[in-house]
Design a protein that fits this description.
Elements: H1 3-18, H2 40-53, H3 58-77, H4 89-101, H5 113-130, H6 167-179, H7 183-194
Length: about 200
């Protein structure tokens, strides 16, 4: 290395060290948005994080989220309080009736009894968590509320009647399948013959 190249490197190093220190950055007076204690949306986030940590499937978490979000929409639309301590059993019953009748939807669309039961189970799990109970009703930690507004039994889901194939329909089906000599036709005939 030549003397001039070495001198340039030394000069660069001297310039770096001889600079005046930068003034410290001014602290910005910023405070994060504080969640509202007891707000149902804030508690929903806490609930979903706790359930995810316990290994619930993504579909189950989505069902919980959808159920509680529909409840939030209902509470806002009817002018009821979003504070979890203020929600009563009559609020939950009114929500389930609105879901059943389709009043909670845009456009209005009545929900099946099975859908209403799914909403009920999601809301029940949410309020159990808030009262400090796990899915089986065992104490888990500090409760957010004293008593769950979800009381009473689960909405009933009527059993659907499944039509039974008559003997004549089975004969027609087997005669049709017997004509098909392909592998799929013989396989289907074997399956039908077992019943």
């Amino acid at each position: 290395m030549t003397r001039t190249a070495a001198a340039k490197i030394i000069d660069l190093d001297a310039r770096r060290t001889s600079r005046a220190p930068r003034p410290p950055r001014r602290a910005v007076a910023w405070t994060p948005k504080q969640p509202i204690a007891g707000d149902i949306a804030t508690e929903l986030t806490t609930f979903l994080n706790a359930r995810r940590a316990r290994g619930r499937s993504l579909r189950t978490l989505a069902s919980y989220r959808e159920s509680v979000n529909l409840l939030i929409t209902f509470l806002d639309a009817t002018g009821r309080s979003r504070n979890v301590a203020d929600i009563t059993n009559s609020d939950i019953d009114a929500f389930l009736n609105a879901e059943r009748d389709g009043d909670n939807r845009t456009p209005p669309r009545a929900q099946s009894p099975a859908s209403v039961a799914i909403r009920y189970r999601g809301i029940r799990a949410f309020f159990r968590f808030l009262t400090g109970l796990d899915d089986r009703g065992h104490p888990t930690g500090d409760p957010v509320i004293d008593r769950s507004p979800v009381t009473g039994g689960e909405p009933t889901v009527p059993q659907a009647d499944v039509p039974v194939i008559t003997d004549d329909q089975i004969k027609i089906l087997t005669s049709y399948l017997a004509k098909d000599k392909s592998f799929d036709g013989r396989r289907d005939l074997a399956i039908v013959s077992l019943f």
